[in-house]
């Protein structure tokens, strides 16, 4: 039987999982739009302008859904996790306030110019607005990741009367895990957007729309994937080493590693079923030494085992063992897709190899799936702590009963699926329509487009 704590966790997991996919696309898409407009201003190639018009509509819808879904979580901190707000609010409150003051206002201030200012401002001013929106999304990610990373690796505070009191904001903001997680999330957003764009282009090519804008979409996206996916693997490795240093129980759970044998290196368990009750990973397929090599960059060092931690401090290995492998497995396929694109580009068959185009189309949601799997891994891997080593999850929840949380959870599920199914469906219809074909790319004498942008086209 589920308890109030379980329902509170499920409710927050549900709402945050819906929310995270929209900011990820917003972050990547804003930068993509800035690049498109910059290339159009530099080259006067109408293809870039057509793509800007096309993707800015999708960006606007996605941005709106991200704002709506994000508002809910701020209320949940007070309604479902009031003890956490009481203990850690002196840190997380200001960090989230900085996000609103520096990022949200910046995005909101320039978004109108970006979407509807073509006939009102010069080209340079419009490009500046697009850049400001892109920078705003990155600043927003900065503060959100800083707050969440502090919960993973807290520092820069004292405890006074049972509450966290900030003493060093530099240490709070730039806590030990923040640089790695910020880079990891930024790359994940760019890669997720690149696959979204690439799969859209692949769909159009497979359905006979072999136009210059569609080809440009696929080309730019595959260049991004070719560069960003291997870099993400390097950043992920550095992030793993940092996690091993500060959250060793999380790494042990991710690896399904229960005990160390004297003098033996840690093997890498490729597959298996971690059993928390039996304290072992059943049906494991192991590669000797590889765990030590990947996790410690040594053939001799061992990583801490789950049995070295008290039972009440162990994350749920059964779940995060697999979510991590979903993320890592998709990452390998992403690297492969980038390399295949490079080979086909050199052979001159990037846009006509139907097997490759089907593969790219199927990989469309892979970035978002990997993103969700990664967030599940890092958040469940932090358990049983809300603030790692400081405040347990069971001590952070509000005093609600099962019926109240069951009703609110059911209400969220119904409303979210009703609202966001419509929004996502509308975005997919825009993708299906594809970029315009007949624009000559010339603006008027003042440098504005003749045709204003409308998200209702």
Report on the structure:
The chain is mainly α and 457 residues long. It has one domain (26-245, 317-433). 68% of the residues lie in helices and 6% in strands. The protein has 13 helices and 6 strands. The chain has helices spanning 4-43, 46-79, 82-116, 123-152, 169-173, 178-206, 212-246, 248-255, 290-296, 317-347, 354-362, 366-382, 402-433; strands at 157-160, 163-166, 268-275, 280-287, 385-387, 391-392. It has a two-stranded antiparallel ribbon. A hairpin with a 2-residue loop joins strand 1 and strand 2. Helix 1 (4-43) runs antiparallel to helix 4 (123-152). The longest helix is centred in the first third of the chain and has 40 residues, at 4-43. It starts with a helix and ends in a 24-residue tail after the last helix.
Topology:
Elements: H1 4-43, H2 46-79, H3 82-116, H4 123-152, E1 157-160, E2 163-166, H5 169-173, H6 178-206, H7 212-246, H8 248-255, E3 268-275, E4 280-287, H9 290-296, H10 317-347, H11 354-362, H12 366-382, E5 385-387, E6 391-392, H13 402-433
Antiparallel strand pairs: 1-2, 3-4, 5-6
Helix pairs in contact: 1-2, 1-4, 1-6, 1-12, 1-13, 2-3, 2-7, 2-13, 3-4, 4-6, 6-7, 6-11, 6-12, 7-8, 7-10, 8-10, 8-12, 10-12
